[in-house]
Amino acid sequence: MTDPEDDGVDEALALLGPEVRTPERHRATPWGEARALAARLGAARPTGTRRVPLGQALGGVLAQPLAALTDLPSFDTSAMDGWAVAGPGPWRVREGGSVLAGHAQTPPLPDGEAVRIATGARVPPGATAVIRSEHSHADATGHLHAQRDVTHGQDIRPRGQECRSGDQLLPASAPVTPALLGLAAAAGYDELRIVERPRVDVLVLGDELLTAGLPHDGLIRDALGPMLAPWLRALGADVTVTRRIGDDADALYAAVSGTEADVVITTGGTAAGPVDHVHPVLDKAGAELLVDGVKVRPGHPMLLARLTPARYLVGLPGNPLAAVSGLLTLAEPLLRGLAGRRAPEPYRATVRDEVHGHPHDTRLVPVAHAGGRATGQPAGHGAGGRPAGPASPLVVPLHYNGPAMLRGIAAADGLAVVPPGGARAGDVLEILDLPWAATTGRCFT
Ligand SMILES: Nc1nc2c(c(=O)[nH]1)N[C@H]1C(S)=C(S)[C@@H](COP(=O)(O)OP(=O)(O)OC[C@H]3O[C@@H](n4cnc5c(N)ncnc54)[C@H](O)[C@@H]3O)O[C@H]1N2
Ligand code: MOO
Fold it and tell me: What keywords sit in the KW lines (predicted)?
């Protein structure tokens, strides 16, 4: 089950003369190891933290646990509009208006008395229950009668029911969502300490790239510049600049050695062609190559280097789907750690159709949700090693998944991780989610 798309590379390598830098197969890192290394490097050195007003924290992650600054509710609260009562009824109705939300504490309620109360108001000391207006009636003598049994404490939210001051509401690294902002405000916060977003410079290499109009005379449109910045932002990065460097080794060296970003991402120039400058420039810059090729298709020339102790470079191959593969293999786990984010739970789905594999390397193949769930797969059937449960979602491998193509990934909900040798229809495979899947309503998880 070998895809003809993958066959040309080894042949091309064999044609290279000895004077040309030849990628050594044995140096390529297995796909899982490369991801794990990138994740470890990122997690080892998250970027700094800062305090921001609640209104600016959305999309960040908590740098420290969210501990309640108050009991919630912070006082015994009426859960309904009606009557606060003390002891058994009927009750004498207290003169002088209602107890309202936001008002100061009212005098204690003696046994046998009732007072009108609004939802959210402080329950007077001594009250033993709240009776909803629709479950009671007041008679002409100024007495209140319950129309249902009254249980002790009914419709009173006791102080501290949701949390006590100091309780941990959410752990560090929780994503700051609209709901978290609401909870933080309720729990007394004006500001949150969040992890700084790692700063990323994107350097797009290649003299053949146009930034507008139709391809002509061998020139093509830059597909990566428009794609990477928003994708990286969705991964938690702050893209400081997207620069087009052409095939200029000096300009690349200047950009790499002069950067102040936490991560530099280059596109193109990772292979062994005459204008593939990434390796020589990294040598010149004294960078340490941590990953030099990964056993994955597409994208195997991807690389990861350490520029300085606190600065990394991810080299994405120029072929657009190969660049996506490098983005998800190396950049995503590295940035996740730097941004203080937690790893998502590995997610698996059943592939509806056979997927061709590479003989030795992992393949990443765009897949779309089939809108159904696999049932009754025989145990142990999957090359991915796990039987499909009755509720395993079903995915369809998409066409147009060649290294130079974006047509498949643009229609995809995720990328299936296809082990060497391929997968049969019904196999269960790991799926890499795309960061926008949740916003389009097609999320797997
Ligand atoms: N002798 C070898 N040749 C190649 C190898 C190899 O191992 N030995 N690997 C092949 C594989 S696999 C890939 S992937 C590419 C990686 O090449 P580079 O990273 O050096 O990228 P370029 O040569 O600069 O470009 C490759 C291809 O992609 C197009 N490209 C580049 N940037 C963009 C962009 N921003 N938008 C759209 N398209 C882009 C470029 O025009 C080329 O067609 O190398 C193989 N060759
Ligand atoms: O074929 Mo290359 O694998 O990465 O585009």
Answer: Magnesium, Metal-binding, Molybdenum, Molybdenum cofactor biosynthesis, Transferase
Give me the residue label for tokens 């040598």: 283
Nearest to 292 by CA among 42, 37, 7: 37
Find tokens 């495979």 and name the residue. Answer: 429
Give the separation between CA 234 and CA 236, rounded to whole angstroms.
5
Tokens of 142: 């100024």
Domains defined for the chain, CATH in brackets: 4-46+197-338 (3.40.980.10), 49-71+162-195 (3.90.105.10), 77-157 (2.170.190.11), 347-433 (2.40.340)
Predicted confidence (pLDDT) per residue in 231-269, tens digit: 999 999 999 999 999 999 999 999 999 999 999 999 999
Question: Atom 6 (ligand 1): residue with closest C-alpha?
Answer: 271
Tokens matching residue 399 = 């066409």
pLDDT of residue 438: 53
Neighbours of 385 (CB within 10 A): 13
Tell me: cis bond preceding 298? Omega within 30 of 0 counts.
yes
**Separation of CA 3 from chain center:** 31
pLDDT tens, position by position, 73-96:
999 999 999 999 999 999 999 988
Within 6 Å (CB) of ligand 2, which residues are found?
Answer: 9, 297-300, 317, 319, 322, 403
- Give CA–CA dist 115/130, Å, rounded: 10
pLDDT mean over 142-170: 97
| ipTM reported for the complex, 2 dp | 0.97
- 52 within ligand 1 shell (Cβ under 6 A): no
What's the mean per-residue pLDDT of the chain?
89
The residue whose CB lies within 8 Å of the most ligand 2 atoms, and thus the one to mutate among 3, 7, 9, is: 9
Q: Whose CA is nearest to atom 3 of ligand 2?
A: 298
What span, in angstroms and rounded, lies between the C-alpha atoms of 128 and 213?
75
Amino acid (one-letter) located at 187: A
From 319, 364, 407, the mutation candidate for ligand 1 (largest count of ligand atoms within 8 A of CB) is 319
